[in-house]
Amino acid sequence: MTSIDAAPAIELDALEKHYGAAHALRGIDLSVEQGEVFGFLGPNGAGKTTAIRIILDLIRPSGGRARVLGFDTQAETVEARRHIGYLPGDAIFYRDVTADELFAYVERLRDGAVDRVYLRRLIDDLQLDAGRPIRTLSRGNRQKVAVIQALMARPALVILDEPTTGLDPLMQDVVEDLLREVAADGRTVFFSSHLLAEVEQVCSRAAILREGRIVNVFDLAEQRRIAPREVRVVLEVAPAADAFDAVPGIRVLSVVGTEARFETDGSIDALIKALARHTVLELESSEPTLEDLFRKYYEAPDDQVTHEDGSHEDTEAGGAS
Predict the structure, then answer these.
(1) Contact 33/189 with Cβ under 8 angstroms?
(2) Quick one: average pLDDT of 235-260?
(3) Residues 217 and 278 occupy one common structural domain
(4) Dihedral class, residue 206 (left if φ above 0, else alpha if ψ from -120 to 50, else beta)
(5) Which end of the chain is more exposed for a tag (fewer CB within 10 A), N or C?
(6) Residue 98 located in a structural domain
(7) Distance between CA 86 and CA 80 in Å, rounded?
(8) Looking at the predicted structure, is the pLDDT value of residue 226 above 90?
(9) What is the pLDDT of residue 278?
(10) What confidence score (pLDDT) does residue 45 get?
(11) What is the mean pLDDT of the chain?
(12) What's the domain range around 260?
C-alpha cells in the first residue's frame, strides 16, 4: 500500500509529450516535497500546462511517468485525484448555478469531505457573493470561485494554473496568504505563473521551464543569499578609471564621471572601505530579482543554456502551453 506521508507530493520521471514532430515536454525530471509552495515558471508554450494535465491524468505522456503522493497517475488515477485540488487556467462552470450550488456539488463529489467552516471563511476572505448565478459574476469573481473550489476540501496537494489571473492586487494578496496557510498545514501547493513577483512572495522553490525542458530548479532563499548584488555610487569628484580595480571581491561594471557601478557576490565591506577615501553623495545597493534570473535563461542563446544534468538546450522547436 502506498504511504502518502513518506512520498513526495509530485514525482516526474523522464516525462515526455510529443504531438507529431512537436515536442511539448522533453524528458522532465522533478520532485516536489510535501509542505512546499512550488512555482512552475515559463512563458506560454514552455510546457507548463501540458505537464499539469499529465499530472492530473487529463492527457497521457508519450514517455516517462508521473506520481502524486506515491500514486501512479495513470494506474491509480482515482486514488491520486482524491488528494488533489485543481484550478485550471481556463476554468469554466455551469452558468446558471450559483457559487453556493457549485460548492455543494463539489462537496458531494468529495463524499462530504469538506470543512464548511473553512469554506465559509474562504468565501468571506475573498469577498465573494456566493448566492449569485455564476453567469452574473465578473471575471475576477469567477476566478475566486475557481480558487475556492480548489481549496475547500483541504486537499493534500493543490495544483493551480495561473491562480491570480483576473484578481485585483488586494485579492492577489489574500490568495497568497491562503497558499502560505496550505504549506504551513503541511500540505503542498504547485502552481504555474507568469507573475514572477508572486512567485518570489510565496514560493520556497521554483523550476524554470524552457521549450519543454527544465533548465533550473532553485531554492529562492538560497538564490537570494548567493545572488550577486549590484552597488551604484555617486561621488563628489570623479575617481580615476582604475580607482577600484584592486578592491577584493568586487567587479567594476563601469566608472563614468562621478558615477561608478559594482557587482559583488558577498560582503561589500571592502568596497565601503575603499569608498571611505572619497566623498560619497549617493549609494544604492540592489539584489537581482527572480525576473532577472528568469531573463537570464530566456535571453541566453540556445547553445548557452546549460541544464541541471550538464546538457545543453537543443534548437528543435517545442510547442505546447
Answers:
(1) no
(2) 93
(3) no
(4) beta
(5) N
(6) no
(7) 12
(8) no
(9) 96
(10) 84
(11) 87
(12) 228-286
In a domain, residue 219? The reply is yes
Q: How far lies 190's CA from each of 10, 36, 101, in Å?
A: 9, 8, 27
Number of domains the chain contains: 2
C-alpha cell at position 246: 584592486
3-25 per-position pLDDT tens digit:
577 799 999 999 999 999 999 99
- What residues does 124 pair with on adjacent strands? none
- The C-alpha atoms of residue 290 and residue 272 are separated, in whole angstroms, by 27
Q: Quick check: 232 and 253 in contact, CB under 8 A? A: no
- Are 78 and 14 members of one domain? yes
Question: What are residue 105's phi and psi, to 5 degrees?
Answer: -65, -45
| For residue 306, pLDDT beyond 50 | no
280, 164: one domain: no
- Which three three-digit cell numbers place residue 251? 567587479
Q: Is residue 132 part of a domain?
A: no
Clarify whether residues 237 and 278 are in a common domain.
Answer: yes
160 & 275 share domain: no
188 vs 208, higher pLDDT: 188
Pairing of strands 37-41, 63-68: unpaired
Is 159 found in the same domain as 250? no
**CATH code (residue 32):** 3.40.50.300
Cβ neighbours of residue 202 closer than 8 Å, sequence gap 6 or more: 37, 39, 176, 179, 180, 189
Distances (CA, A) of 34 to 158, 163, 185, 318: 11, 19, 10, 30
CATH at residue 263:
3.30.70.1560
- Predicted confidence (pLDDT) per residue in 38-59, tens digit: 999 888 888 999 999 999 999 9
- At position 83, the amino acid (one-letter code) is H
